[in-house]
Amino acid sequence: MSESPSLGARLVGGSGGLVALALLLAPTLGLAGEHPQWFLAGGLTVFALSFWASGLLPEPVTALAFFLLAVLSGVAPPEVIFSGFHSKAVWLVFGGLVIGVAVRKSGLAERLARALTRRLSGSYLSIISAIVAGGFLLAFLMPSSMGRVVLMMPIMLALADALGYPERSRGRAGIVLATGMVAFGPPTAILPAVVPNLVMAGAAESALGVHLAYLEFLGWHLPTTGILKALLLIGAVWLLFRQPPTAPASRPTADSAPPPMSATEKRLAGLLAVTLALWCTDTLHGLSPAWVALGAALVCLLPPLGRWWPESLVGLDDMASKVNYPSLIYLAGMLGMGAVIAASGLGGFLAQRMMELTPFADGGTPADTLWNLGWVAGLTTVAGMAATTPGVPALMTPFAATLAEGTGLSQMSVLMALVTGYATTILPYQVPPLVVAMQMGRVGLASGARLCLLLAGATLLLVWPLTALWWVLGGFVQTP
Q1: CA distances (Å), origin 362, targets 289, 403, 429, 465, 471
Q2: Which of 31, 339, 438, 449 could lock 26 by a disulfide, CB 3.0 to 4.6 Å apart?
Q3: Residues 19 and 126 reside in one and the same domain
Q4: Same domain for 141 and 10?
Q5: Which residues of 163-201 are buried (b: 16+ CB within 10 A; e: fewer)?
Q6: CA–CA gap between residue 475 and residue 405 (Å, rounded)
Q7: Together in a domain, 141 and 204
Q8: 347 and 434 housed in the same domain
Q9: Does any domain span residue 173?
Q10: What does the pLDDT profile of the chain (480 residues) look like in tens digits?
Q11: Paired residues of 309 in beta bridges
Q12: Final residue in a domain of this structure, among 75, 93, 116
């Protein structure tokens, strides 16, 4: 039985619902002036974001309500409202979900996760380093951040028990929070590894005609958003939660050594290697990461074909019961919201107002370029406080063209600055995988907030400036 929404959630959802109702009724009451579509799009957006942020309704239910209200209101044609379903982002997520089922079913996921804990030196720093490094590497193979958390948390909790960290202890809280944070923060540098990246990729394609390539995206973000943030995460967890283990980490022995890889694991490992290689070389062969993921999912679903393929990696029963289809509806809803914002003209209007109210520079000097990049990232981070991280790219991406024109930046530079912004988490509620990890590990909100705030401060002081420097030195951003 699900928990009742908190008072805060009810206030957020209720107030958002009232504002949405007022905006939706404005055209009927003759209060919308010359732009009734703006009020309709604004009402639908406020409704969706407030209910997604509050959790007052399950996320896919809110998405379905958005679809129905949008169609009935006539805010945009159905092909715009439902455009998320034929977005590459949805099919990339679908492929990732099927791959995730295969990784877990075959035992390869557990093998990879347990490998993280087998050779620890016993110091708290080495424990956290192994968790963060392993979780980051796992993001290349397992595209679902929520799936990575669900996979790793039971193993990490068992590790905490083995190391002598009881519930509510500092050391245990650090292990839990490191596991939750590494599912989202550093993997934001990897295009298919987190939902917000996929939302932005889909919105950029539908609203701007911009295609994001796997390897190019990795080049923009891996050194700073990826590797540097992983190092900062290790340091922050160690600083806040360090506690020497009271029991030594177990060493691998002949009896405890993992069994040899099964034939199924080997086939899946080969498929993952080919999939990753195709993702990394998409600029050479021109195949979208979405179609690569869909092809990998198709291979996973193949029925037995003889000696060389004796069993399915994912059976139809697994596909029916273990693939998280509601998440696809949620993603399509966010993409549809972004498409409605753009098609109604509301996105252009809000972007223009944003340009007028934000102290952007004219872009005439290198300092102006860096200043503008910082403001774009900052606006995105602030938006994440209201819309939560998954909703931010759907809200902000339609503004990218206007922001690019007004700041002198390229559309790609603006999009990549958005990534830097939504990768910066202020409080735990913004990141669903972190919330799940904290619930599974019984870690209080105060501990999670301390870590998020410390990381946010370190990100502003170190990651953002070094990201801008990397983009300029690497030729990603052209300065005057």
Answers
A1: 36, 12, 36, 20, 19
A2: 31
A3: no
A4: no
A5: bebeeeeebbbbbbbbbbbbbbbbbbbbbbbbbbbbbbb
A6: 20
A7: yes
A8: yes
A9: yes
A10: 455 677 877 888 899 999 999 999 999 888 888 889 999 999 999 999 888 878 788 888 999 999 999 999 999 999 999 988 988 778 877 887 888 788 878 887 777 666 655 656 578 999 999 999 989 998 888 777 877 887 778 678 877 887 888 888 999 999 999 999 999 989 999 998 898 998 898 888 877 888 888 899 999 999 999 999 999 999 999 999 999 888 655 554 545 667 888 888 899 989 988 988 887 777 678 787 788 889 999 999 999 888 888 889 999 898 888 888 888 898 888 888 888 887 888 877 876 777 778 888 876 678 888 888 999 999 888 887 766 677 788 888 888 888 888 888 889 999 999 999 999 988 887 887 887 788 778 888 788 889 999 999 999 999 999 999 999 888 888 765
A11: 306
A12: 75
Q: CA–CA separation, 167 vs 136, rounded Å?
A: 25
The answer to whether residues 145 and 200 belong to one domain is yes
Whether residues 98 and 175 fall in one domain = yes
For residues 59-83, one letter each, b for 16 or more C-beta atoms within 10 angstroms of the residue's C-beta and e for the rest, the string is bbebbbbbbebbeebebbeeebbbb
Measured between alpha carbons, how far is 391 from 383 in angstroms, rounded to an integer? Answer: 9
Domain count, the chain: 2
Its domain, for residue 47, covers 1-75
- 160 shares its domain with 56: no
Q: Are 409 and 369 in contact (CB under 8 A)?
A: yes
Whole-angstrom Cα distance, residue 90 to residue 99? Answer: 14
Contact 115, 216 (CB under 8 A): no
Q: Considering the domain boundaries, does residue 478 fall inside one?
A: no
Question: CA 185, CA 55: separation in Å to the nearest integer?
Answer: 22
Taking each helix axis from N to C end, the angle separating 88-106 and 108-115, rounded to the nearest 10 degrees, works out to 80
CA–CA dist 182, 187 (Å, integer): 7
- Residue 84 in tokens: 């998320």
pTM of the model: 0.72
| Placement of tokens 């099927």 in the chain | 98
Give the contacts of 457 (CB within 8 A, at least 6 positions apart). none
